[in-house]
Design goal:
By secondary structure, the chain is an alpha+beta fold. The chain is 49% helix and 16% strand.
Length: 288
């Protein structure tokens, strides 16, 4: 339905907005042999307007030699070799309706995997969707299938499957398996915060304060945020310092408890629970 003389197509959902100046940026960067322009996509924006999950999206594309595939989470397949351009200048913001039902996703993902059981991306998405629906055993089986596929080579996504398997075991109160899969995730992607933070969260549930401190401190040594859809909000907000402050409090290291509570509040000054925690930590120190 697109005219043949079009050079560039932009696939934009109804809940997405391009920031002003987008056309001039595309015209400046686009070349005759460009197949795709990858741009900044702010998938999750908080109430203050701050981007919390950001990655490179790829739905600005050339008119010819490609087609859309998959019943849901559609992607482009090209008949020719691709030449992609990356830019941080062009920004698309996502403003989803949080009350919108996701009920259509699961059957469409099941259809996608039935049509192509070797598609690692869709198998991963299906396992994640089962997890969202609290179908934990189905999620575990599907995510393990994802890890065994020959095409499952992207480490960040493999790490996410391992983390999701751990979440399922955690929900089933099978904490040893939950920890085992998080250890696998950490080994898979030692450069990512996400598995370390999830391990700290698990240690919080188990009230293993020394281990929480160990993993929380390791997470804070990672300062590079990969721009992928795998990003977790809790890896880059106040969560780590909040968890550390609690762990230090229970190990009676009140100075570090106070320090981390203050750091957490610097990131999220509106968190009333952390404010109350800070007051409690300060009183505990004063009572010594």
């Amino acid at each position: 339905m697109i005219p043949n003389d079009a050079d560039v197509c932009i696939c934009l959902d109804l809940d997405e907005l391009m920031e002003p100046g987008w056309r001039a940026i595309i015209e400046k960067l686009w070349q005759k042999d460009t197949t795709r322009l990858r741009y900044i996509y702010n998938w999750y924006i908080d109430e203050e307007g701050n981007p919390k999950i950001t990655y490179y999206a790829e739905k600005i594309h050339s008119r010819h030699n490609c087609k859309w595939v998959n019943p849901v989470h559609e992607i482009l397949n090209y008949d020719t070799e691709e030449k992609q351009i990356f830019t941080d200048e062009l920004i698309v913001n996502h403003y989803p309706d949080r009350n919108k039902s996701r009920s259509s996703y699961l059957p469409l993902l099941e259809l996608a995997v039935k049509e192509n059981p070797e598609n690692d991306r869709n198998v991963h998405y299906l396992g994640r969707e089962y997890m969202y629906y609290e179908k934990y055993n189905e999620a575990i089986d599907t995510l393990i299938k994802h890890l065994h596929l020959k095409s499952s080579t992207w480490k960040d996504e493999r790490c996410a499957s391992m983390r999701f398997i751990s979440r399922c075991y955690k929900a089933l109160n099978r904490f040893d398996e939950a920890e085992m899969w998080l250890q696998k995730a950490i080994t898979e992607c030692p450069y990512l915060r996400d598995p370390l933070v999830e391990m700290a969260m698990l240690k919080y549930n188990l009230e293993d304060w020394p281990s929480l401190i160990e993993y929380g401190k390791k997470a804070l040594t990672i300062n590079h945020n990969e721009k992928t859809y795998i990003n977790e909000v809790f890896s880059w907000d106040e969560t780590i310092n909040d968890l550390l402050s609690i762990a230090y409090y229970y190990t009676k290291d009140y100075d570090n408890a106070i320090k981390n509570a203050q750091l957490a509040l610097n990131i999220n000054p509106k968190n009333e629970r952390i404010k109350k925690n800070l007051e409690m930590f300060q009183k505990a120190k004063e009572s010594l």
